[in-house]
Specification:
The protein has about 400 residues and is mainly α. The chain is about 50% helix and about 5% strand. It has a 3-stranded antiparallel beta sheet with strand order 1-2-3, with no helix packed on it. A two-stranded antiparallel sheet has the order 4-5. The protein has 15 helices and 9 strands. The longest helix has 24 residues. β2 and β3 form a beta hairpin.
């Protein structure tokens, strides 16, 4: 601490820096300076697979605001998927920025395949994410700009699903873990069928027909090994897509849903499944018989008459003649008796038809009304008026 160093900073033409020390015991080292050939204007270097600071691109986003460094594609996508799982309501507000960020970094076949795998794993392993995953897949299939020779996002996604689909027979006979994973895949494929939109050459929007055929084969695989877990998965699949599948098959002139229902009835009669599962299957057959619970529009209601409404007279009022004989609208002499009732002068002596009071001074009812207040009430009322007037003046 007793020695003070003095550093001499050379000009651009100097190649060496001398370090002088006031102490005689210190040597004078010579440091060589190597001149860099890099320009100060050279672009900043980023390692392959890294994404730049998203705060610069999305300053107003609630999701990207959490990051102030660099992330790999896998980290960024997985964090966004977890974010959607926890806050599904943020899908509408943040999906556009998410797609824009992917378009800036998903520029290779490998990156696109990695993106597909991440979404697929989240949709088939996280409970209740299959619907959100299907919505996400539909959005990205229309908004990702990359379309390599290996296939666009939708094509790679369907290829990934096909890998699991081809193992359906083994999966329905596997252990419980295998079955559970397979059932998650089945329900994700069902959501994908409902949400994935295919735009035709004329701009029309249709569903992926290959998924329709795939779901039919998955049902066959589930019913081929009718254990409880497989049957429960089949019930969930049909509750989710049954009406849509049946409409699509009918449009093609197919009777596939009748075959599915017959298969279910055979399982109920022959399979060794539990009583609860058989009850679920019967409820499903009942649901289908009611057109999957769909209510179609009916003809406008007509004015009820005694001819078309058997309960027409049930809510009609009951009147009494001057002799105390009751009669209703169902009475043959109703009109005559009702007119006689209206003509009675003493029917409503104090009220008009609109309910206005016609009584006045001299009337027995009117004269019996006591307009005077109780002394205590009158005293309290006067006190209230004085206090109100005092507050108003203040």
């Amino acid at each position: 601490s007793e020695h003070l160093q003095k550093t001499v900073i050379p000009s651009r033409s100097e190649d060496k820096v001398s370090v002088l020390d006031s102490g005689p015991e210190m040597a004078e080292p010579q440091l060589a300076v190597v001149t860099s050939k890099l320009s100060v204007k050279a672009p900043e270097f980023y390692p392959s697979g890294y994404i730049q600071n998203f705060n610069q691109n999305f300053p107003d986003s609630t999701f990207e605001d959490r990051y102030d460094g660099y992330l790999t594609l896998a980290e960024y996508v997985q964090d966004f998927l977890n974010h959607l799982t926890e806050q599904p309501g943020s899908f509408e507000t943040e999906i556009e920025q998410f797609a824009e960020a992917l378009n800036s970094c998903v520029t290779t076949d490998e990156a696109l395949q990695e993106l597909v795998e991440l979404i697929y794993q989240q949709a088939t392993s996280v409970p209740n994410f299959s619907y959100m995953g299907a919505r996400l897949c539909n959005y990205l299939s229309h908004h990702l700009t990359i379309s390599p020779q290996s296939g666009n996002f939708r094509q790679l996604l369907l290829q990934r699903c096909r890998t699991e689909y081809e193992n359906r027979d083994e999966a329905t006979r596997g252990d419980e873990t295998t079955k559970t994973q397979f059932h998650s895949f089945v329900l994700f494929l069902a959501e994908l069928y409902l949400n994935l939109e295919i735009k035709g050459t004329r701009g029309q929007v249709t569903r992926a027909e290959i998924l329709q055929e795939g779901l039919r084969e998955l049902l066959n695989a589930l019913f081929s090994n009718p254990v409880d877990s497989n049957l429960i998965c089949a019930v969930k699949l049909l509750k989710l897509t049954g009406s849509v599948l049946e409409d699509a098959w009918k449009d093609k002139g197919k009777n596939d849903m009748e075959e599915v229902i017959q298969r279910i009835e055979n399982v109920v009669l022959d399979a060794n499944c539990s009583r609860d599962v058989k009850h679920m299957l019967l409820k499903l057959v009942e649901l289908r018989s009611s057109n999957w619970g769909r209510v179609h529009g009916t003809t406008p209601p007509t004015e009820p008459t005694p001819e078309n409404d058997p309960n027409y007279f049930m809510n009609e009022p009951t009147f009494y003649t001057s002799d105390g004989v009751p009669f209703t609208a169902a009475d043959p002499d109703y009109q005559e008796k009702y007119q006689e009732l209206l003509e009675r002068e003493d029917l409503f002596p104090y009220y008009e038809e609109n309910g206005a009071d016609l009584s006045g001074p001299g009337d027995l009812y009117y004269d019996e009304i006591d307009d005077e207040m109780d002394p205590e009430i009158e005293e309290a009322y006067e006190k209230f008026c004085l206090e109100s007037e005092h507050k108003r003046k203040q």
